[in-house]
């Protein structure tokens, strides 16, 4: 593995003389990237396969923990170690996976839903749209369904209660996404303690040429709470399994951004490394399977996105990767050629995100907050009827009937078949005393949707009051 790491550095110089190739298995990644081999293996405990794959622009697969035998492999941290593999061709990645996982033949199962982890993409140094739009468009084209946005901090906060013991790591003001930071701290603690258990006696007796800082860190007094870390692992696996079930996919950035430059300050930055490890800790601590998929380049450097499936969902993830890969690369090409419309696409994605936040606020009965989010969506993309109709619903709750009427009119101008817009405008006009116009709106809603009970009840009510 040392030979492969050195080889990785030398080979990478052919393309990026000033960039690092990744982690401990970077030699394998670069050998694949350089066309020397069709596939190669690597060890991934806390990112040793995923990061080199991302930095070298190749497919990298970390299987579910313990599904591929580690027999004959020198352990790093047994609770985290996995045997991963690299390939440029998704068919090769798929075939290698089936051999290593010893999978029998079975039909391909399509994914039910894709979750984009918005908070994870906030950590990325690459614009989120550049990464998520490719996945979103590919999912829509292949499976005909929208992705959903999720905030992992919020989802996991009530599901991994044992993380409280690892939440004291806010250094240098680094308090963004504290739960992911605590998960990262737990992973580092477990990794360090298990490595010490396996190798510290040998290091002390042989005294190999190891960086003094590493030896010093390993020699620090105090043992980690292994039982606590294992509890975190169990809860993390249960939480992600509950979210993804058998046919869900979680989408996150593989790395923070482009490969760092050689000797760059961020390589020794605790904050930078902590943010990178937060992304990696999700699969490492839950034991879920993860694949890093290249998405072309940014600033002439490889970038990627990762898909995560539940623990044991390796076949499903391999099948999904093979199914999506060609379409993803097509979308990368389309995005690269659409620089003129990139701002519009970015605004459209931001508008959708704002709408989702507005919907969440509306469900929580935070009407003014919902109005603000819908307004933001309209400013970003004023051609979507739903944004106006949704804001009208919030205005109705605030008894702002004129604003609600105006928004519904705008929605109807954009989409003349919007039943909700007619219903809401009818409600607003009824409250404003425009009874004839309100009846007209409710009648129009019935023309579009003859069995609509809300419209029928409203018409009967108004006819009784004003025959």
Automatic annotation (TrEMBL):
Pfam families, per the entry: Amidase
InterPro entries: Amidase_dom, AS_sf, TPR-like_helical_dom_sf, TPR_rpt
Each TPR repeat, start to end: 351-384, 419-452
SMART domains: TPR (SM00028)
Keyword tags: Signal, TPR repeat
Signal peptide per UniProt: 1-17
Stretches that traverse the bilayer: none
Residue ranges annotated for the Amidase domain, each copy included: 15-89
Protein's name according to its UniProt entry: Amidase domain-containing protein
Species: Zea mays (Maize)
